[in-house]
Amino acid sequence: MIVTVTLNPAVDKIYWVDSLRVGRVVEEEFLTRATRSSTSAGGKGVNMSVVLSQLGMENVAMGFIAGSAGHVVARDLRAKNVTTNFVWTRGETRTNAVVLEEGQSRILIFIGEAGPAVDANDVKHFIRRYRRMLPSASWVVLAGSLPPGVDADLYRDLATMAREAGAKVILSAGGDALQRGLEAGPTIVKPDTREERLLEGRSLATRETILEAGRHIVDRGQAEVVIVSHEVTGDVVVTRDAAWEIRSSVPASELKNLVGADDAFLAGTLFRLANGEPMERALRFGLAAGVATAESEGKVCGDVGRIEARMNQVTVDRIS
Amino acid sequence: MNVREIMTKDLTAVESDVSVRDLIFILENAEMPGMPVVDDDGRLTGFISEKDLIRAALPGYFELLHSASFLPDLNQVAKKLTKIADDPISKYMRKDVFSVREDEDDLRAADLILRKDVMSVPVVDATGRLVGRVRRIDLLRHFL
After folding, report:
1. The complex's ipTM?
2. I need a surface site. Which of A54, A104, A130, A198 has the fewest CB within 10 A?
3. Residue B38 pLDDT more than 70?
4. What is the pLDDT, as a whole number, of residue B31?
5. Are A45 and A4 in contact (CB under 8 A)?
6. Is the confidence at residue A267, as pLDDT, over 90?
């Protein structure tokens, strides 16, 4: 069984518009009507849980939720056949507002709230529940930002508990949470590069710098596998024995919605790894899942048929 | 159809040493009228509901009265609730808990809900670990 931890989940509110009108003066018309919209549970681990469930893999989504938005998250996940195990806290689960242009993949606006503060008592309750899940977990996913009030060491502590219980760990985060989390030696690390393209202070700007930073992490035993998004439809993967560049030949013009594509990639890779497949094949399936998601109007796509249809448009090249 | 196919897959539960105050917060926010109690292995050990807490806050003789109008006022209920707020819920939970196994027939869950007049029934696996719950609404949605 897989446990996904999203400590700061969100309601993802996506609006599609024909064009965005921004008013500059009071008199100017600036009303933009959405052609359509969607509301769904969000956050990196949450998105991964949805894909895993669509692929038929048992998983439990954990984290903190609060207020009416917390109910939206829990209900949406249960409707998608994900088992929920969240700790209720004070405040209101955050909402991410995303504006997409019809027919385009680029995100016009992404506004992410900080999320409700979580106190030490909440963390204590969470850890107790988390420990209960570990004996039956083969993989644990620790993903996304930490909520306000939570110590940056939390991912490190959760990863350590998981490793001690015999579970493999995926850490997908940024900043201090990533830095500290590396101290626990997660199995796979995927830096969140949306805000800064850095890993342990090293640049992740080019394929060469990614390779260098990845090797630095792997050689020091801080992770077995480092995965870094390189371009929109490409990633660089570094392990102790090899490095690969994986890319998709699907033209960017066919991509409709990049929200969640990265999470679908990681979930697809995890799905195949958890089924015992080697890294190279798992990565190919993972990127196909990411592309299938980016091509779909929905936020994530875990449809095996659509994913497999994209497999022949994914190349995995060994680069080291 | 078996229980697993109709249950709500949610593991929200409390441990027996959680305080009454914390439980009230969780019940209110999770919008659940009652909650399973589990041990550190996730095994079902009891159940506690709003009703159990209200009963605990009422005077011991309340159930002998024919009507609540015989109570002098509700201040003593408020005082009692304040007094027990930091107590562990183990003092007030029901330990004679009933449950259904995830591989049992859905009719067994319906039967328990009707006969015991409860809002939901905890669902456990073969080892007694909590895996979900069947609510009245799950049955209605399923049978429609």
Report:
1. 0.90
2. A104
3. yes
4. 94
5. yes
6. yes
- With an 8 Å Cβ cutoff, are B10 and A131 in contact? no
pLDDT, tens digit (0-9, with 9 covering 90-100), for B58-83: 866 666 666 666 666 677 778 889 99
Report residue B74 CA to chain centroid gap. Answer: 24
Chain B residues in contact with chain A using a Cβ-Cβ cutoff of 8 Å: 8-12, 15, 22, 25-26, 29-31, 38, 40-42, 131-132
The domain total for chain B is 1
Residue B14 three-state SS = strand
What is the mean predicted confidence (pLDDT) over A227-245?
Answer: 86
Closest-CA residue of B relative to A132 is B41
Contact B30 A88 (CB under 8 A): yes
Give the Cα separation of B40 and A136 in Å (integer): 13
Distance, CA of A143 to CA of A239 (rounded, Å): 20
Give me A36's structure tokens. 């359509």
Among candidates B22, B31, B40 on the partner chain, residue whose Cβ is nearest the Cβ of A132: B40
Contact A53, A270 (CB under 8 A): no
H/E element, A224: none
Distance from CA of B132 to the nearest CA of A (A): 8
- pLDDT in the model for residue A67: 97
If one counts every other C-beta atom within 10 angstroms of the C-beta of residue A31, the result is 6
Task: List the CATH number of the domain containing B83.
Answer: 3.10.580.10
What is the least distance, in Å, from the CA of A54 to any CA of chain B?
15
Residues A184-198: tens digit of each pLDDT = 999 999 987 766 666
Higher pLDDT, B113 or A295: B113
Dist CA A291 CA A232 (whole Å): 10
- Residue B26 phi/psi, 5° resolution? -65, -45
Per-domain boundaries in chain A: 2-20+32-318
Residues 6+ apart with CB under 8 A from A309: A292
- For A249, counting Cβ atoms within 10 Å of its Cβ (0-12 exposed, 13-18 middle, 19+ buried), the class is exposed
Query: What distance in Å separates the CA atoms of residue A210 and residue A230, rounded to the nearest whole number?
Result: 8
Which overall architecture, per CATH, does domain A2-20+32-318 show? Answer: 3-Layer(aba) Sandwich (3.40)
Does B8 score more than 70 pLDDT?
yes
Tell me whether A160 touches chain B (CB under 8 Å): no
Question: Domain residues for B53?
Answer: 3-143
The span from the CA of A308 to the CA of A289, in Å, is 8
* Cβ distance of A128 and B38 shorter than 8 Å: no
